[in-house]
Design goal:
32% of the residues lie in helices and 19% in strands. With 436 residues, the chain is α/β, with parallel strands linked by helices. The protein folds into three domains: 162 residues, Adenylosuccinate Synthetase, subunit A, domain 1 (Adenylosuccinate Synthetase, Chain A, domain 1); 93 residues, Adenylosuccinate Synthetase, subunit A, domain 2; 168 residues, Alpha-Beta Complex (Adenylosuccinate Synthetase, Chain A, domain 3), CATH 3.90.170.10. The strands form five sheets. Strands 9-7-5-2-10-1-11-15-19-20 form a ten-stranded mixed beta sheet, with helices on both faces. Strands 14, 16, 17 and 18 form a four-stranded mixed beta sheet that branches. Strand 3 and strand 4 form a beta hairpin. Helix 3 crosses helix 4 and helix 5 packs across helix 6. The model has no long low-confidence stretch (mean pLDDT 95). Bound molecules: inosinic acid. Inosinic acid binds next to helix 4. Pathway: Purine metabolism; AMP biosynthesis via de novo pathway; AMP from IMP: step 1/2. Belongs to the adenylosuccinate synthetase family. This is Adenylosuccinate synthetase. Pfam families: Adenylsucc_synt.
Amino acid sequence: MPSTVLVGAQWGDEGKGKITDLIASKYDYVVRYQGGNNAGHTVVHGDKKLALHLMPSGVMYENAIPVIGNGVVVDPGVLVKEMAMLQAEGISCKNLKISCDAHVIMPWHKDLDGADEKSLGEHKIGTTKRGIGPCYQDKAARKGIRIQDLFDEKIFRLKVETALKQKNPVLSKIYGLHTYTVEEICEEYLPYARILKPYMAETAHMLNSALREGKSVLFEGAQGTLLDIDHGTYPYVTSSSCCAGGAATGSGVGPVNIDRVLGIEKAYVTRVGGGPFPTEQRFPEDGGVGEEAETGELLCSVGHEFGVTTGRKRRCGWFDAVIARYAAEVNGLTDVALTKLDVLSAFDTIKVCVAYECNGKRYDYFPMQQSVLFHAKPIYEELPGWKGEDITACKSFEELPENAQKYVEHLEEITGVKISIVAVGPDRDQTIMRGW
Ligand code: IMP
């Protein structure tokens, strides 16, 4: 069984949770390698739906070891609550392994995330306000607090004291917010240390040893390619390496040990937060009118496009092959899982963006300059739909209506990657395997 990176190929929310849920049970380890509780995916447990934000979805399978890698930023309060929620549902967290090198989200990170956004006004990023950016900022500035620091009270106090010397004046003098004392931080965080200590592990060594023994590893990406700090639509991105390369740095496993990279793509595109989105079909409240607004509303309502973490309405648009080709390159995609194909059953005809046009120039590839992307006009192909045909019970590719098959094959052709999985509904069995 090879090791696989599962990565969002758009702006997040591509349905990674469902595909992870589908394949995770076959792996020995399931590893989160970046991001934090800004992620959110729903897993099905019996007749209940549970929302996971930080816990690797491997926790749902007795045989899989869930791992929080060094590249993740951990809000210990959230993790402890998530563990309690899972345990109350009868799901054991006993196999969880957490890297001692993962950074800790502190209360001031969350305050600063909110305050920064407020100060940006209309240019705000639209963050989840979970403290992700400010925590990675401190990590890069070499001022962060790591999980291992929680276990030595003397060191933890010293680090908090040092941090507060800088953070308190910023909180109070720049943003007019409340300040913290070392004592109150210790009171909140040291009990977390006692709960989390049994789960600490040398995760990089553990994973490398496992790979040497022929075990399989699934690297579970959060967010998506266009939210990647390097390859995304900067500055409208998250602060971590969501792309497949991040799996190596965020876990301590060398890239040669990664065999397959599975990109998750929705059959259309969604985005939350600000930033450019060429194929967006704006909602009326965002200035969309006529067919554009109708398409946006239909994609949102039929696709239930509301954030798991924030509850926000997601911006919606047609499939963008320029983005898909870019994601194929920067992640080295070997396969694609196409999700929510059933949502397109609501349309007479379906548009696919094959290139952009900006200032008289055609772009078949992802433009280097953000300003081009902001003003890019999509060049669409229009494909016949399969409106009214319910595809949610289709079990094989051949059972799909001819136009749905042609749509999938066309996407393969224009994006250059094999679509090995097609999802036609939210449940695990509403999935067509095509060689995965
Ligand atoms: P942050 O990760 O909270 O700093 O937010 C930065 C950007 O990433 C914002 O546009 C968020 O809406 C977006 N973002 C963060 N996490 C997710 C996710 O899981 N799905 C989709 N967008 C996300």
